[in-house]
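Sanity check

After download, print the first record. It should look like this:
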Amino acid sequence: MLGIAEQTVTAADGTAAVVVTPRGELDLAAIASLDSALRSALATAGPQPRLVIDLSDVDVLQPVTLGVLLDARRRCRTADGGLVLVVSTAGVAATLSETGVDSLFETATELQAALARISEAAHSNH
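Expected structure tokens:
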């Protein structure tokens, strides 16, 4: 069963990021829900979207869902925004590594570190 939460978090420096937290299995059956949630988050995030996808509660990350994550990354970068994945489990890290996409994503092992990276990226673009 997949559940997806979305919240807007504002860092101490005022940088706002939308945090999307999927839970459960990210597999073929989850693609439409994940894509919809990420598109909604990008719309919420504004013209220079700062997006954190917290994969800490993901039990299974199947390679078939990586296209959705890569599309969100592309949309953020095209709009001069940023995207950081929270990768705290060995299984999710292994999937990213085995598929060769780990180098394409900015990652952090916890949410606070991801928010700090988004904040740093926002300020380096000014």
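If your output differs, re-run the checksum step. Summary of this record's structure: The CA atoms of residues 105 and 119 lie 16 Å apart.
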